[in-house]
TrEMBL record:
The keyword Phosphoprotein does not apply. Keywords: Membrane, Transmembrane, Transmembrane helix. The chain crosses the membrane at residues 63-82, 102-123, 144-166, 209-231, 243-261, 273-295, 307-330, 350-369. Residues 224-387 form the DUF418 domain. It comes from Spirosoma linguale (strain ATCC 33905 / DSM 74 / LMG 10896 / Claus 1). This is DUF418 domain-containing protein. It holds the Pfam family DUF418. The keyword Lyase does not apply. InterPro entries: Bact_Transport_Assoc, DUF418.
Amino acid sequence: MTMHAPQVHPTTERSALVDALRGLALLSIALANVPTGDALKSTHYIFLNSQAINPILEAAKHILISTKFITLFSILFGYGFYTQLNRATQWGTSFRRYFTMRMLLLLIIGCLHAYLLWFGDIIRYYALCGMALLVFHQLSTRKLLITALVFMVPVTAILFILNGLLELQRYSYDYTIPDRIIYETSYLNYLRDNFTIDPMVNFVQDSPITFAACFGKILFGYWLGRISFFQQPQRFGRMLKKWFWWGLSVGTFASVGYWAVSTGRLTLDLPLLWLPFVIAGGLVLHSLFYIAAFVRVFQTQRGKRVLLIFAPLGKMALTNYLLQTVFYLLFFYAWPHAWPTSQRISLAEVYLLTLLFYGLQVLFSHWWLRYFSQGPVEFLWKKMAYRQLGPGDRPASQISSIPS
């Protein structure tokens, strides 16, 4: 395999576009991850009864949100790899050693998050895929794009089909655990159930598809950094136009198909074996539609002023992602206080409560970054990674700029 040194660009300021995009996407992550299953069964409400529109709310979540913004985060993670590689090259830092340690620390954070708080953690996949990226990052720009597309579409679709054909979704644990875990009043029992249904624990059933899809999207994000997409989006007007219209059409169709399959409305029989390939590619296109629409709005003066509100949230995205889990547990699970809120309010109120919390996160992020240059988890993560470097490898100017 022919290897090529990656292109290095001059250091630029942190991308406000990327931070704003990541910050706004955190809203969709919050809405996608709120446990709504029990809320759907609830007939209680405080001021807003949503029983009539519950199916619409659930369908809208599947079609407009599910997988699209995790895709976006994966792409931005790959772009972050590019920026770190670019800066390390200019500073003369041992990037491979630094980034490996950074990913190992992220893996530890992800494991603590998954096994002590919530099984739905995605951080562990990013950490492992990030280390795998070190093997591929020297591919030529063209081969990088081809490899990314192969992982995102055919590999993901084939693994999905094999998963169904081999009946790998048959778990060894009690199928009622995911429904009842929200009612566990004992933290120890919650930990046991949380570990039992964890995707990494049930690796064969749950993780191969996630790894393939995440890795392809991370590679794609690194490719976008290589071609300077986020640095100079005005150069890619034609590509943005294609993303917008193909994502709006094919992407929406694929998202509807994904909703139909995931909710059991459509069974993938032999004549429909082509559909997973369309869904895998279409879901990526739908995510690219969101990116294209965001970039278009950001390029206008008024739109940029509005969207920059979300930049501080994205600048400390890891901190805010973990805070969202704390919010879920405090308000939607029983073990912290012996009663789940989602049993006492309507689905619409669940979403309104999530929007309120997100608004508080925006305010918190703006306040925090008035006094510090990064989020608390980001600071500790970076500081611990730098400590593993020798004095000659450590960019002193960066370390001294980090607040204590």
